[in-house]
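Whiteboard transcription, Tuesday session. T.W. wrote the structure tokens on the left side:
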């Protein structure tokens, strides 16, 4: 399924509430982690995003597991 407003390079992101709950990480530091998408590659009907986190680390994250802070996916799922 294609998202109406997909995560794009340059977006500020955090892990989505649904992802955090599904991995039992809804407490601790993970819900507060923020980053910027620095690259994105198609992966089937999704995208694999390269995120540079505010602590300087980088990681690859599936776009379905990311949300823009303040968005509905950030707060609930």
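and on the right, the sequence the group agreed on:
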């Amino acid at each position: 399924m294609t998202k109406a407003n997909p995560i794009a390079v340059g977006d500020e992101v955090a892990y989505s509430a649904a992802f955090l709950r599904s991995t039992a990480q809804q407490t601790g530091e993970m819900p507060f982690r923020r980053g910027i998408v620095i690259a994105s590659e198609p992966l089937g009907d999704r995208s694999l995003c390269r995120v540079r986190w505010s602590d300087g680390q980088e990681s690859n994250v599936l776009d379905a597991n990311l949300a823009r802070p303040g968005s509905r996916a950030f707060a609930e799922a």
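Someone added at the bottom: The chain has a mean pLDDT of 90.
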